[in-house]
Amino acid sequence: MIFILYGPPGSGKNFVAEWLVRDYGFYFYDADKDLTSEMKQCLTEKQPFTQEMRDNFFAVVC
């Protein structure tokens, strides 16, 4: 079973993930470390990701 927590910064993704690890022994993988340089640039510029960026990212992490 895989849960993907996706949302804007500060929405509680890491909080929920850490709770699942602590209380249920789930494995937590922070896919932020796999963001492409193009995606990081979009975040810096507060621009949305394109569908192609998301597709490429999910091909790596899923």
Helical content (DSSP H or I, runs of 4+): 40-55%
Profile the largest sheet: none
In angstroms, what separates the terminal alpha carbons?
A: 12 Å
Oligomerization state? single chain
Proportion of beta-strand residues: under 5%
| SSE order | HHH
Total helices: the number is 3
Secondary structure category: mainly alpha
Q: What would the principal axes of the Cα set say about the shape?
A: globular
Sequence stretches where pLDDT stays below 50 over 5 or more residues: none
Strand tally: 0
Round the mean pLDDT to the nearest integer and report it.
91
- Using only C-alpha atoms, the radius of gyration works out to 13 Å
SSE topology sketch:
Blueprint (H helix, E strand, L loop, with lengths): L12 H12 L12 H8 L6 H11 L1
Question: Which descriptors would you attach to this protein?
Answer:
50% helix, globular, mainly alpha, 62 residues
Question: Could you please describe the fold and organization of this structure?
Answer:
By secondary structure, the protein is mainly alpha-helical. Helices cover 50% and strands 0% of the residues. It is built from 3 helices and no strands. It has helices at residues 13-24, 37-44, 51-61. The longest helix is centred in the N-terminal third of the chain and has 12 residues, at 13-24. It is globular and about 35 Å long. It starts with 12 loop residues before the first helix and ends with a helix. The mean pLDDT is 91.
